[in-house]
Design a protein that fits this description.
This protein is mainly alpha-helical and 297 residues long. It contains 15 helices and no strands.
Protein backbone atom coordinates (compact mmCIF):
# COMPACT_ATOMS: atom_id res chain seq x y z
CA UNK A 1 0.00 0.00 0.00
CA UNK A 2 2.88 2.35 0.80
CA UNK A 3 4.36 1.84 -2.68
CA UNK A 4 0.99 2.52 -4.27
CA UNK A 5 0.57 5.67 -2.20
CA UNK A 6 4.04 6.86 -3.24
CA UNK A 7 3.20 6.25 -6.91
CA UNK A 8 -0.06 8.19 -6.56
CA UNK A 9 1.78 11.08 -4.93
CA UNK A 10 4.32 11.14 -7.75
CA UNK A 11 1.54 11.16 -10.34
CA UNK A 12 -0.23 14.02 -8.55
CA UNK A 13 3.06 15.93 -8.38
CA UNK A 14 3.60 15.68 -12.13
CA UNK A 15 2.85 18.88 -14.07
CA UNK A 16 -0.61 18.92 -15.61
CA UNK A 17 -0.90 19.07 -19.37
CA UNK A 18 -2.23 22.20 -21.02
CA UNK A 19 -4.75 21.93 -23.82
CA UNK A 20 -4.29 23.71 -27.14
CA UNK A 21 -7.05 26.21 -26.35
CA UNK A 22 -5.69 26.99 -22.86
CA UNK A 23 -2.24 27.48 -24.34
CA UNK A 24 -3.68 29.72 -27.08
CA UNK A 25 -5.55 31.82 -24.51
CA UNK A 26 -2.37 32.30 -22.47
CA UNK A 27 -0.52 33.41 -25.61
CA UNK A 28 -3.37 35.72 -26.58
CA UNK A 29 -3.35 37.40 -23.16
CA UNK A 30 0.31 38.27 -23.65
CA UNK A 31 -0.50 40.11 -26.89
CA UNK A 32 -1.42 43.63 -25.75
CA UNK A 33 -2.77 44.76 -29.13
CA UNK A 34 -4.98 41.67 -29.42
CA UNK A 35 -6.35 42.17 -25.90
CA UNK A 36 -6.97 45.84 -26.66
CA UNK A 37 -8.88 44.76 -29.76
CA UNK A 38 -10.93 42.24 -27.80
CA UNK A 39 -11.74 44.70 -25.00
CA UNK A 40 -12.61 47.52 -27.40
CA UNK A 41 -14.82 45.25 -29.48
CA UNK A 42 -16.69 44.06 -26.37
CA UNK A 43 -17.02 47.67 -25.23
CA UNK A 44 -18.51 48.76 -28.57
CA UNK A 45 -20.93 45.85 -28.60
CA UNK A 46 -22.12 46.62 -25.06
CA UNK A 47 -22.59 50.38 -25.53
CA UNK A 48 -24.39 49.88 -28.86
CA UNK A 49 -26.66 47.26 -27.31
CA UNK A 50 -27.44 49.53 -24.36
CA UNK A 51 -27.94 52.63 -26.55
CA UNK A 52 -31.56 53.23 -25.38
CA UNK A 53 -30.31 53.35 -21.78
CA UNK A 54 -27.25 55.50 -22.45
CA UNK A 55 -28.85 58.32 -24.41
CA UNK A 56 -32.15 60.17 -23.86
CA UNK A 57 -32.69 60.71 -27.59
CA UNK A 58 -34.08 58.47 -30.32
CA UNK A 59 -32.12 57.92 -33.52
CA UNK A 60 -34.97 59.50 -35.53
CA UNK A 61 -35.66 62.45 -33.17
CA UNK A 62 -35.27 65.74 -35.05
CA UNK A 63 -34.94 69.32 -33.86
CA UNK A 64 -34.83 71.50 -36.97
CA UNK A 65 -34.46 74.62 -34.82
CA UNK A 66 -31.19 73.26 -33.49
CA UNK A 67 -29.76 72.25 -36.87
CA UNK A 68 -26.15 71.13 -37.09
CA UNK A 69 -24.53 72.13 -33.81
CA UNK A 70 -21.05 71.54 -32.46
CA UNK A 71 -20.43 69.11 -29.57
CA UNK A 72 -21.82 70.43 -26.30
CA UNK A 73 -22.86 69.33 -22.83
CA UNK A 74 -26.33 68.30 -24.02
CA UNK A 75 -25.09 66.72 -27.28
CA UNK A 76 -21.63 65.28 -26.64
CA UNK A 77 -20.85 64.61 -30.32
CA UNK A 78 -22.98 67.42 -31.72
CA UNK A 79 -26.03 67.14 -33.98
CA UNK A 80 -26.50 66.69 -37.72
CA UNK A 81 -28.25 69.04 -40.16
CA UNK A 82 -31.66 67.77 -39.00
CA UNK A 83 -30.86 68.36 -35.34
CA UNK A 84 -30.46 64.64 -34.56
CA UNK A 85 -28.05 63.69 -31.79
CA UNK A 86 -24.88 62.25 -33.34
CA UNK A 87 -23.92 60.07 -30.38
CA UNK A 88 -27.33 58.40 -30.52
CA UNK A 89 -27.11 57.83 -34.26
CA UNK A 90 -23.57 56.46 -33.99
CA UNK A 91 -24.64 53.99 -31.29
CA UNK A 92 -27.70 52.84 -33.23
CA UNK A 93 -25.65 52.78 -36.44
CA UNK A 94 -23.08 50.62 -34.66
CA UNK A 95 -25.83 48.10 -33.96
CA UNK A 96 -26.51 47.75 -37.67
CA UNK A 97 -22.86 47.73 -38.76
CA UNK A 98 -21.83 45.14 -36.16
CA UNK A 99 -24.94 43.06 -36.88
CA UNK A 100 -24.17 43.08 -40.60
CA UNK A 101 -20.57 42.12 -39.85
CA UNK A 102 -21.40 39.19 -37.59
CA UNK A 103 -24.49 37.82 -39.36
CA UNK A 104 -23.08 38.11 -42.90
CA UNK A 105 -19.84 36.51 -41.70
CA UNK A 106 -21.86 33.70 -40.11
CA UNK A 107 -23.57 33.09 -43.46
CA UNK A 108 -20.21 33.04 -45.22
CA UNK A 109 -18.81 30.78 -42.51
CA UNK A 110 -21.65 28.27 -42.81
CA UNK A 111 -21.47 28.07 -46.60
CA UNK A 112 -17.68 28.18 -46.88
CA UNK A 113 -16.90 25.62 -44.17
CA UNK A 114 -19.50 23.16 -45.43
CA UNK A 115 -18.54 23.53 -49.09
CA UNK A 116 -14.79 23.45 -48.48
CA UNK A 117 -14.98 20.46 -46.12
CA UNK A 118 -17.00 18.40 -48.60
CA UNK A 119 -14.68 19.29 -51.50
CA UNK A 120 -11.52 18.61 -49.52
CA UNK A 121 -12.70 15.27 -48.15
CA UNK A 122 -14.23 14.00 -51.40
CA UNK A 123 -11.19 14.79 -53.56
CA UNK A 124 -10.85 13.66 -57.16
CA UNK A 125 -13.35 14.81 -59.75
CA UNK A 126 -15.86 16.04 -57.18
CA UNK A 127 -13.24 18.31 -55.65
CA UNK A 128 -12.11 19.55 -59.07
CA UNK A 129 -15.69 20.30 -60.14
CA UNK A 130 -16.60 22.07 -56.91
CA UNK A 131 -13.46 24.23 -56.91
CA UNK A 132 -13.86 25.15 -60.59
CA UNK A 133 -17.32 26.44 -59.65
CA UNK A 134 -15.67 28.52 -56.91
CA UNK A 135 -13.20 29.91 -59.47
CA UNK A 136 -16.04 30.87 -61.81
CA UNK A 137 -17.98 32.64 -59.06
CA UNK A 138 -14.78 34.29 -57.84
CA UNK A 139 -14.25 35.78 -61.31
CA UNK A 140 -17.63 37.52 -61.21
CA UNK A 141 -17.70 41.19 -60.13
CA UNK A 142 -19.03 40.90 -56.57
CA UNK A 143 -20.14 44.51 -56.26
CA UNK A 144 -22.27 44.32 -59.39
CA UNK A 145 -23.76 41.04 -58.13
CA UNK A 146 -24.77 42.63 -54.82
CA UNK A 147 -26.11 45.75 -56.51
CA UNK A 148 -28.26 43.61 -58.82
CA UNK A 149 -29.64 41.67 -55.85
CA UNK A 150 -30.53 44.90 -54.05
CA UNK A 151 -32.17 46.34 -57.16
CA UNK A 152 -34.16 43.21 -58.08
CA UNK A 153 -35.29 42.15 -54.59
CA UNK A 154 -35.43 45.55 -52.92
CA UNK A 155 -33.39 47.17 -50.17
CA UNK A 156 -34.04 44.80 -47.33
CA UNK A 157 -31.81 44.50 -44.26
CA UNK A 158 -32.01 40.69 -44.20
CA UNK A 159 -31.25 40.54 -47.91
CA UNK A 160 -28.21 42.72 -47.29
CA UNK A 161 -26.92 40.17 -44.75
CA UNK A 162 -27.49 37.27 -47.13
CA UNK A 163 -26.10 39.07 -50.19
CA UNK A 164 -22.83 40.02 -48.50
CA UNK A 165 -22.48 36.60 -46.89
CA UNK A 166 -23.16 34.91 -50.22
CA UNK A 167 -20.10 36.54 -51.83
CA UNK A 168 -17.69 36.28 -48.88
CA UNK A 169 -17.62 32.48 -48.51
CA UNK A 170 -15.30 31.69 -51.40
CA UNK A 171 -11.98 32.30 -49.64
CA UNK A 172 -13.24 30.46 -46.56
CA UNK A 173 -14.07 27.45 -48.74
CA UNK A 174 -10.54 27.40 -50.17
CA UNK A 175 -8.95 27.65 -46.72
CA UNK A 176 -11.10 24.87 -45.27
CA UNK A 177 -10.52 22.66 -48.31
CA UNK A 178 -6.76 22.93 -47.89
CA UNK A 179 -6.96 22.14 -44.18
CA UNK A 180 -9.23 19.14 -44.74
CA UNK A 181 -6.95 17.73 -47.44
CA UNK A 182 -4.05 17.77 -44.98
CA UNK A 183 -6.06 16.38 -42.08
CA UNK A 184 -7.69 13.50 -43.94
CA UNK A 185 -4.26 11.86 -44.33
CA UNK A 186 -3.86 11.64 -40.55
CA UNK A 187 -4.14 8.40 -38.57
CA UNK A 188 -7.21 9.44 -36.59
CA UNK A 189 -9.20 9.71 -39.83
CA UNK A 190 -8.11 6.23 -40.88
CA UNK A 191 -9.13 4.95 -37.46
CA UNK A 192 -12.56 6.58 -37.81
CA UNK A 193 -13.00 4.97 -41.24
CA UNK A 194 -12.04 1.56 -39.84
CA UNK A 195 -14.70 1.98 -37.15
CA UNK A 196 -17.32 2.37 -39.87
CA UNK A 197 -18.17 6.05 -39.37
CA UNK A 198 -19.89 7.75 -42.28
CA UNK A 199 -18.21 10.50 -44.29
CA UNK A 200 -20.56 13.09 -42.82
CA UNK A 201 -19.73 12.03 -39.26
CA UNK A 202 -15.99 12.11 -39.97
CA UNK A 203 -16.22 15.61 -41.43
CA UNK A 204 -18.49 16.91 -38.67
CA UNK A 205 -16.88 15.27 -35.62
CA UNK A 206 -13.21 14.94 -36.56
CA UNK A 207 -12.07 17.09 -39.48
CA UNK A 208 -13.85 20.42 -38.91
CA UNK A 209 -13.04 20.55 -35.14
CA UNK A 210 -9.35 20.03 -35.98
CA UNK A 211 -9.46 22.87 -38.51
CA UNK A 212 -11.06 25.38 -36.14
CA UNK A 213 -7.85 27.35 -35.62
CA UNK A 214 -7.54 28.75 -39.18
CA UNK A 215 -11.33 29.05 -39.40
CA UNK A 216 -11.51 31.25 -36.30
CA UNK A 217 -8.61 33.41 -37.45
CA UNK A 218 -10.05 33.99 -40.91
CA UNK A 219 -13.48 34.69 -39.40
CA UNK A 220 -12.08 37.59 -37.36
CA UNK A 221 -10.49 38.95 -40.52
CA UNK A 222 -13.68 38.53 -42.57
CA UNK A 223 -15.83 40.62 -40.21
CA UNK A 224 -13.99 43.91 -40.96
CA UNK A 225 -14.14 43.16 -44.71
CA UNK A 226 -17.89 42.68 -44.45
CA UNK A 227 -18.31 45.88 -42.43
CA UNK A 228 -16.30 47.82 -45.00
CA UNK A 229 -18.43 46.36 -47.80
CA UNK A 230 -21.63 47.39 -45.98
CA UNK A 231 -20.18 50.86 -45.38
CA UNK A 232 -19.36 51.17 -49.08
CA UNK A 233 -22.86 50.06 -50.11
CA UNK A 234 -24.43 52.51 -47.66
CA UNK A 235 -22.09 55.21 -48.96
CA UNK A 236 -23.48 54.56 -52.46
CA UNK A 237 -27.05 54.65 -51.13
CA UNK A 238 -27.62 50.91 -51.66
CA UNK A 239 -27.38 49.76 -48.05
CA UNK A 240 -29.24 50.88 -44.95
CA UNK A 241 -32.05 53.34 -45.65
CA UNK A 242 -33.17 56.31 -43.50
CA UNK A 243 -34.34 56.79 -40.82
CA UNK A 244 -32.14 53.81 -39.87
CA UNK A 245 -28.44 54.47 -39.84
CA UNK A 246 -25.16 52.64 -40.06
CA UNK A 247 -21.62 53.93 -39.80
CA UNK A 248 -21.29 53.82 -43.58
CA UNK A 249 -24.47 55.86 -44.05
CA UNK A 250 -23.36 58.40 -41.43
CA UNK A 251 -19.98 58.72 -43.16
CA UNK A 252 -21.81 59.30 -46.46
CA UNK A 253 -23.77 62.15 -44.90
CA UNK A 254 -20.61 63.50 -43.29
CA UNK A 255 -18.73 63.63 -46.60
CA UNK A 256 -21.43 65.85 -48.10
CA UNK A 257 -20.93 68.51 -45.43
CA UNK A 258 -17.38 67.82 -44.20
CA UNK A 259 -16.10 71.32 -44.93
CA UNK A 260 -18.89 73.05 -43.03
CA UNK A 261 -19.60 70.47 -40.32
CA UNK A 262 -16.47 68.28 -39.96
CA UNK A 263 -17.70 66.47 -36.83
CA UNK A 264 -20.39 64.75 -38.89
CA UNK A 265 -17.59 62.84 -40.67
CA UNK A 266 -14.96 62.61 -37.93
CA UNK A 267 -16.97 60.81 -35.24
CA UNK A 268 -18.62 58.02 -37.29
CA UNK A 269 -15.39 57.58 -39.25
CA UNK A 270 -13.47 57.26 -35.99
CA UNK A 271 -15.94 54.67 -34.65
CA UNK A 272 -15.65 52.55 -37.80
CA UNK A 273 -11.86 52.90 -37.99
CA UNK A 274 -11.23 51.94 -34.36
CA UNK A 275 -13.57 48.94 -34.63
CA UNK A 276 -11.83 47.71 -37.79
CA UNK A 277 -8.43 48.16 -36.14
CA UNK A 278 -9.65 46.21 -33.10
CA UNK A 279 -10.88 43.34 -35.25
CA UNK A 280 -7.63 43.19 -37.19
CA UNK A 281 -5.54 43.29 -34.01
CA UNK A 282 -7.65 40.46 -32.58
CA UNK A 283 -7.33 38.46 -35.78
CA UNK A 284 -3.56 38.85 -35.84
CA UNK A 285 -3.35 37.88 -32.18
CA UNK A 286 -5.47 34.77 -32.72
CA UNK A 287 -3.34 33.78 -35.68
CA UNK A 288 -0.20 33.94 -33.54
CA UNK A 289 -1.85 32.25 -30.55
CA UNK A 290 -3.21 29.35 -32.59
CA UNK A 291 -0.04 28.82 -34.62
CA UNK A 292 1.06 25.21 -33.92
CA UNK A 293 4.70 26.07 -34.61
CA UNK A 294 4.61 28.89 -32.06
CA UNK A 295 3.03 26.61 -29.46
CA UNK A 296 6.03 24.24 -29.72
CA UNK A 297 8.61 27.00 -29.19
Amino acid sequence: MSNQAAIVEKIDAMPKGVSLWDDAWMRLKKNKLAMFGLCFLLFMMIVCLLAPLLTPYGYEDQDLRLGASVPSVTHWLGTDTFGRDMLTRILYGGRVSLMVGFIATSVALLIGVTYGAIAGYAGGRIDALMMRLVDIIYALPFMIFIVLLMVVFGRNLLLLFLAIGAVEWLVMARIVRGQIQNLKQQEFVEAAISLGLSSGAIIRKHLIPNALGPIIVYTTLTIPNVMLLEAFLSFLGLGIQPPQSSWGLLISYGVESMEEYPWLLIFPGLALTLTLFALNFLGDGLRDALDPKASRD
